[in-house]
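Our consortium's second objective concerns turning raw sequence data into structural hypotheses that experimental partners can test. To show how far this objective has progressed, the report includes one record in full. It was chosen at random from the queue rather than selected for favorable results. The single chain below, 537 residues long, was entered without modification.
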Amino acid sequence: MAIDAENTFDFIVVGAGSAGCALAARLSEDQNYSVLLLEAGPEDRDPWIHIPVGFAKLFSKGSVNWLYATEPGREWVKRSVPQPRGKVLGGTSSINGMLYVRGQSEDYDHWRQLGCTGWSYDDVLPFFCKAEDQERGPDPFHGAGGPLSVSDAREAHPLSEAFIQAAIAQGHERNNDFNGARQEGFGTYQWTTRDGWRCSTAVGYLRPARRRPNLKVETNAHAKRLLFEGARVTGVQYDVNGTVREAKARREVLVAGGAYNSPQLLQLSGLGPAALLRQHGIDVVADISAVGNNLQDHINAPMVFELKDPVTINDLHNRLDTKIIAGFKYLFGRRGTLHMACAHAGGFLRTDPSLASPDIQTIVLLASTPAPGMAPHDYSGVSVIATLLRPESRGTCHIKSADPFDAPAIQPNYLESEKDRTTLIAGMKAVRRVTQDQSFTAHTIAERHPGPEITSDEDILEYLRAKCRTSYHPVGTCRMGADEKSVVDERLRVRGIGGLRVIDASIMPTLVSGNTNAPTIMIAEKGADMVLADASG
């Protein structure tokens, strides 16, 4: 179907990120429907988006990044923590660390147990496979030929095998596929790269879809509010470089702004906690108290090591000879430091043998900095990170004003739960035992942070209060559920509102046990399937 001149479409997708690009691409495959995709940021032309190691340069780059930050915590993490989010075609899939991790099968079975019919692991696995172009080929857990390329590193890194061997020496098993039959164990990560380049959803999904006449993409289009007729959404009002425009939707508006921007848009449009909306002078369309609540994120404990050899991103930043070598390797083979995602090696472990599945993820981040977004240390350094997989702490994302250009107030309440604190301390100790094995220490000069003198639970907790970081995996603020207090139902329709769905990481009822980009793309694949099925029915 051709696009109407009066800016009317069958579907409007708000947000061209990990979910939005995939959603618009899949919907536009059906030529019976026209699709408008709105993105607040620019085209993905920055070259550092496409060179994998460029993620380090995009962390604090305002031209492609919302540059959000949390509110200082009330008790435990009393500081603001950076929250980089992609503001560009591809969204955070254009600026992230590119690890391809789905989480555990138990995560999705738990969603089903919470009443989210159709979201068990057996239900979602086909959509993971549909999205995937697995370099190793198809098998019962993987797909080939999909838009999202999933690749192995093109060359080994000396620290990767050392870390894996250290873990094996400490009693852990080797695992060559964290997304296969089981997650537990140590091995190498796969990346969302293709031929040595980043494969964002803008590249994998949107680039080929833009040839279709029934898809229109508008960049620098900042959504201001949803448009209503009664309790039905009929379109979107948005700003393009100071000019206010409106687009109408014949069928549905699909919000895909992510865990921060989706609840913000709903609240700005009168959908959210009534008291919050009235506080900011917004007319209440529907009092949906859960909008902006249930925020969850992966908090982590970083440990920094100085290495004997110049083999990290630090050296790419600090040494001319390393820059020259890296440039030649990438130019003539798409190899070397420039082709690397954020981590080669890592693993998943249980802090308690009685647990059914891992509760800690670890990665060897091939760089170290004094704080997120800062320049690397002046030595060859790596950060070995222990990540809390299933946090109990819950936070909020609420508007600060009725101005759509004001960043929302993000309050994750990191480490508020005592269990989160005790589990992360245990996880840090478990990962530290791996780094103290001779296979790993053969490559290190010293543990720089927190330092070998920090050993007691009390000292580790104080270190975490001052230095813990996030893995940048916010979810849950437009929670899916079977209960009336959930924001969306199992078909991702906003409760009590017609013509509106939320399809992104914000709908996760609980955080998955791993990185969130692949699950977000799966949500978009499944969401598109449901939207098209309902449209044809």
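The partners drew two points from this record. The chain has a mean pLDDT of 95. Residues 517-536 form the longest helix (20 residues). Both points have been shared with the crystallography group to help prioritize constructs.
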